[in-house]
Amino acid sequence: MNGKPVAVITGASRGIGRATAIALAGEGFDIAAIARSVNSEGMEILGPEVEKRGAQFFPVGLDISCTVCQKEVVSNILERYGRIDFLVNNAGVAPLHRNDILELTEESYDRVLNTNLKGPLFFAQKVAKEMIWIKQQISDYSPKIIFITSISAVLSSTNRGEYCISKAGLSMTSTVFADRLSEERILVYEVRPGII
Q: I need a labelling partner for 144 at 20 to 30 A (CA). Which of 74, 84, 112, 135 fits?
């Protein structure tokens, strides 16, 4: 197994995901950067930033809402590195249109909830099971899972209700995972960006 810690970051091509990947590369982590497209401008910018900090950069294409695609991605990362030390579940989307909650469509609800809640939940589930197994193989292994939610998990926006609902659900997801994985000594965190 690779002796260097490995961070897996979803939504890595821009914003919080990109900044997190660069920061963790600077802290000695190799980076598996997940985005919808590995050929995006954001990934092309991220790769050199990670590598100039002495870290390996492994770009991975995945639409996080495609839960049936996730297993292969996790397998590919483990095949390359043999471990996942950090999972930063950051991928998310905003509604395409800000509509009053009374005009919310099922199409928009499904798109946002599948990406912001369902996808991250099942991706964390797959990674957590691997972390439990890896803990039995590496004595000093201390894996962590981080869910990036939003201040919208607790503050209402009536013109983007599906986003608020998805982030509130993801907040509870982090709590449930924290409770379950505490017995495995796997720490789970929620980071809730926003302005108060």
A: 112
Locate tokens 């981080």: which residue? 146
Residue 139, SS3? coil
Calculated CA dihedral for residues 170, 176, 180, 184, nearest 10 degrees:
40
Token duo for residue 196 = 């108060």
Provide the token pair at 47: 């790769």
pTM: 0.95
Contact between 59 and 11 under an 8 Å Cβ cutoff? The reply is no
DSSP strand pairing (86-89 vs 187-191): unpaired
Residue for token pair 């869910």: 147
pLDDT in tens, 82-101: 999 999 999 999 999 999 99
Separation CA 13–CA 41 (nearest Å): 8
Catalytic residues: 163
Asked if residue 1 has pLDDT above 80, the reply is no
The Cα–Cα gap between 42 and 55 comes to 18
